[in-house]
Design goal:
Rossmann fold, two-stranded antiparallel ribbon, SGNH/GDSL hydrolase family protein
Length: about 200
């Protein structure tokens, strides 16, 4: 983008430079005394952040009193390369709504979530109840030992993107995707939550 080249995975939708610049723009982080970070506010056509996190448009159609699903993680969970409507958290909410299920999603992902200490410090700042669900995403593969610590609550997304597949080019770079990639991930996550009886 710095050279004025739009990634092929965005061009396939006819996206223009305004869209590409907006969805690929990094975010500002505000550090807090408790050793955690939140996102700085932003208002634009495609990317909106308020009160420290990225907004999910699906919540405008839902009631905040519904079951909450919090999404934590890094830039993939945040949705670099995608507009607000096509982030993984918003798409999970849309899948639930299409399935006549009521949930409220919050996209709490940010770049510092790569840091275990800062991410757990952020978790401590949020009033999460026993009924709420936490989805934590990372682009790093977990070892078998780390997976075992999660008691089977782990989804490896790599098999869903192995070629050949019919999605076309979904990757903007090594880890970030366009809306088709996020739609696939959201479908997998949503189906997993349903199968587990969580939503």
């Amino acid at each position: 983008m710095k050279q004025g080249i739009i990634p092929e995975a965005l061009l396939r939708f006819g996206e223009n430079k305004v869209y590409a610049n907006d969805v690929l723009d990094g975010w500002g982080l505000q550090s807090h005394e408790g050793g955690y970070d939140t996102l700085t506010d932003k208002t634009s056509t495609f990317v909106n952040r308020k009160n420290g996190y990225r907004l999910s448009p699906i919540n405008e159609e839902e009631n905040k009193d519904n079951k909450k699903v919090y999404f934590f993680g890094n830039s993939v969970m945040y949705g670099i390369g995608s507009d607000d409507v096509h982030t993984l958290p918003n798409l999970v909410g849309r899948n639930a709504l299409s399935d006549n299920k009521s949930i409220y999603v919050e996209n709490r992902a940010n770049f510092s979530m790569n840091d275990y200490v800062r991410s757990t410090n952020l978790l401590k700042q949020i009033d999460i109840s026993d009924e709420d669900i936490i989805v934590f995403g990372t682009h790093l593969a977990l070892t078998v030992e780390q997976q075992n610590m999660l008691n089977g609550e782990y989804i490896d997304m790599q098999p869903y993107f192995e070629r050949p597949h019919e999605m076309g080019e979904v990757f903007l770079d090594m880890t970030h995707m366009n809306k088709v990639g996020y739609e696939k991930m959201a479908s997998v996550v949503y189906n997993y939550l349903v199968e587990k009886g969580l939503i």
